[in-house]
Amino acid sequence: MLEFEKKVILTKEEYYFLKEQQRDSAVTAVQSNHYYDTDDFELSRRGIPCRIRERDGCCTATIKEHQTKWEDCSVENSKRVKNRYDDALFRDMDVSYQGSLETVRITYMPQPGISVMLDRNSYLEIVDYELEIEYDREHEDGATQELTRIIFDLTENGILNDPEEFKLRIGHNKNKAARFFSRKSEIMERTGGGNDELRSE
């Protein structure tokens, strides 16, 4: 499945402003990404995250790779699985469970074919905030317009001082899996601890 999206890391202030703006029209859900990789995080370094996403009692295993044919596009190979430990999709890849990232996701649809998601992510004693706009390829102009509207609202309300700096952030942050493994590597280097000590829930 092809997935088109625009992403940007938000400050805490930006996140809570946008969250407040959508409090009456959005849907909130909690999901967990359970990551699998080799013990030296080879797949993460290659930009191929393997995860099992748990949401509303359902679990989906996914291998995700960046697509170079179109900007802001990735390819997902997904399969419904029995539970968070069912690694059948990537069992032959010599990977093991590495830990989890929990997301509180607020979603709204400004128009058909476009979904806007505000994410609060918690992992390895870190909390970060992210805006994702997912869209069908034929709705890219609408997705761009929605992002422009968000930047305008943040600026007009004094939350954002430099719209150009915000635009530079779009598409240049690491994805959730990359941030998770970057943080995990950082902790391992700092503590000298082995990977087994960091296979957190």
The ordered H/E elements are: EHEHEEEEEEHHH
Count of strand segments: 8
Which stretches are low in confidence, meaning pLDDT under 50 for 5 or more residues running? none
Strand coverage percent: 35-45%
Strand order of the largest sheet: 1-5-4-3-2-6-7-8
Decide which structural class fits the backbone.
Answer: alpha+beta
Mean pLDDT: 89
What's the Cα radius of gyration? 17 Å
Main β sheet profile: 8 strands, antiparallel, barrel
Q: Number of helix segments?
A: 5
**Share of residues in helices:** 25-40%
- End-to-end span in angstroms? 28 Å
Shape from CA axes? globular
Which tags fit this structure?
201 residues; alpha+beta; single chain; 8 strands
Short description:
It contains 5 helices and 8 strands, in the order βαβαββββββααα.
Can you walk through the features of this model?
The structure is a single chain. The chain starts with a strand and ends in a 10-residue tail after the last helix. With 201 residues, the chain is of the alpha+beta class. An eight-stranded antiparallel β-barrel has the order 1-5-4-3-2-6-7-8. The model has no long low-confidence stretch (mean pLDDT 89). The chain has helices spanning 12-21, 42-45, 140-156, 163-169, 176-191; strands at 2-10, 27-37, 50-55, 58-67, 73-81, 96-111, 114-123, 126-135. It has five helices and eight strands, in the order βαβαββββββααα. It is globular, with a radius of gyration of 17 Å.
Question: How do the strands and helices of this protein lay out in sequence?
Answer:
Elements: E1 2-10, H1 12-21, E2 27-37, H2 42-45, E3 50-55, E4 58-67, E5 73-81, E6 96-111, E7 114-123, E8 126-135, H3 140-156, H4 163-169, H5 176-191
Antiparallel strand pairs: 1-5, 1-8, 2-3, 2-6, 3-4, 4-5, 6-7, 7-8
